[in-house]
Design brief:
396 residues, alpha/beta, Rossmann fold, 2 domains, six-stranded parallel beta sheet, elongated, binds adenosine monophosphate
Length: 396
């Protein structure tokens, strides 16, 4: 797939609407983590350097189509100015009089931030009238919010049908990384899917078996697969009613030649708490009063060997209850192995999804991965093979 980018667009003297994700955490009016703001800097600076006038479109929280003063974007202006090093002006509404006046008054070198797009009920309905009102403000549309691209909203999709639309730098980086991992990857490709439940990741597993060469299944969801193989997992978290579905996934994998890797040994405990007394047993030796909380060292060895045999890795979900030591051991060891291979230039590694980012950070491995997506829902939908409306519209 090819996306249009800022490089294909003449921006000199043009008003450029830029959809960004600056939905940052704020406590008592102060931004507590400015990561998302820092990440939009390259795009905004590029637009300024090309002589364009950036007008930022963004949502903040879930005001559900009403003006909720606590969800105003205005308090973010100082943080934006700090990150961008230029004057950032603000308009009290993202369309209509306030927005038009502010756009008209915008001087070259300045940036304008428009109020929360979700203050309008039309935003989440992708209302053509709202899309037209937004489009009327500018001449070019840039989408830099991959994390919001799984939603067809006015500011993420509707407006892109009206104005010439391109991907911003952050969107471009994300799409390149994702394309390298699943779209057009160097093979063999290995996917790691972990986490609590099979039921929340069915689409993901279904899509991956047909695309990857190796699928490592870990975490609570591996227990469901063990149950599907007739193994007693004691008091472990497992969705016993999903056993048939798990069997179908195993059969599909077998049919298409995707090797499935389940734990061969497991770490079991009687309590779900940090430091709980535990032992490592074979996968079919979980005592009836114990629960599986992590993959064991032999499983980790097998996973490491799969990583070594792979050229591309895509990872979502921890291999065990990573929040409570020592049940973070398998996740940590596997993450560190992937980081090491990536650092040595032997592996392209892409990971994403809420808990995964936390788990890889905790393992001290995130820095060395080729790409870590913080896009949560959009990343998962992409891994599920779904078309993201905000991305699709940039390819036309
Ligand atoms: P998810 O949000 O589906 O990626 O699931 C992540 C959660 O799964 C984390 O909170 C882990 O603690 C939990 N988890 C992983 N493995 C296990 C396990 N064997 N038993 C219970 N919870 C687990």
């Amino acid at each position: 797939m090819a996306w249009k980018t800022l490089d294909q667009m003449d921006l000199a003297g043009k008003v450029v609407l830029v959809r960004v994700d600056i939905n940052v955490p704020v406590e008592n009016g102060v931004v507590t983590d400015a990561t998302r703001i820092v990440k939009i800097v390259p795009t905004v600076k590029d637009i300024l350097a090309k002589g364009g006038k950036p007008v930022l479109l963004a949502h903040f929280g879930r005001p559900k189509g009403k003006v909720v003063p606590e969800m105003s974007l205005k308090p973010l202006v100082p943080e934006l100015e700090k990150a961008l090093g230029v004057t950032v002006k603000f308009a009290d509404d993202c369309i209509g009089g306030p927005a038009k006046t502010a756009v008209a008054a915008l001087e070259p070198g300045e940036v304008l931030l428009l109020e929360n797009t979700r203050f309008h009920a039309g935003e989440e309905k992708n209302d053509p009238e709202l899309s037209a009102a937004l489009a009327a403000l500018g001449e070019v549309y840039v989408n830099d919010a991959f994390s919001a691209a799984h939603r067809a909203h006015s500011s993420t999709e509707g407006v892109a049908h009206i104005l010439p639309a391109v991907a911003g730098r952050l969107m471009e980086a994300e799409l390149k990384a994702l394309e390298a991992a699943l779209g057009n990857p160097v093979r063999p490709v290995c996917a790691v899917v972990g986490g609590a439940k099979v039921s929340t990741k069915l689409d993901l597993l279904g899509n991956l078996v047909s695309k990857v060469d190796h699928l490592v299944i870990g975490g609570g969801m591996a227990n469901t697969f063990l149950v599907a193989q007739g193994i007693d997992v004691g008091k472990s978290l497992a969705e016993r009613e999903m056993a048939e579905t798990a069997r179908e996934i195993l059969e599909k994998a077998h049919a298409v030649g995707c090797a499935i890797h389940l734990p061969v040994d497991v770490v079991v405990a009687r309590e779900f708490k940090a430091g709980a007394e535990n032992e490592t047993v074979a996968k079919d030796d979980c005592p009836s009063d114990a629960m599986i909380l992590d993959a064991g060292p032999k499983s980790v060895e097998e996973i490491a060997a799969v990583f070594e045999a792979s050229k591309t890795l895509i990872w979502n979900g921890p291999l065990g209850a990573f929040e409570i030591a020592p049940f973070d051991a398998a996740t940590n060891a596997a993450a560190q192995k992937a980081a090491e291979l990536t650092k040595d230039g032997k592996l392209v590694s892409v990971a994403g999804g809420g808990d995964t980012v936390a788990a890889l950070n905790k393992a001290g491995a995130a820095e060395d991965f080729s790409y870590i997506s913080t896009a949560g829902g959009a990343f998962l939908e992409w891994m599920e093979g779904k078309e993201l409306p905000g991305v699709a519209v940039l390819t036309k």
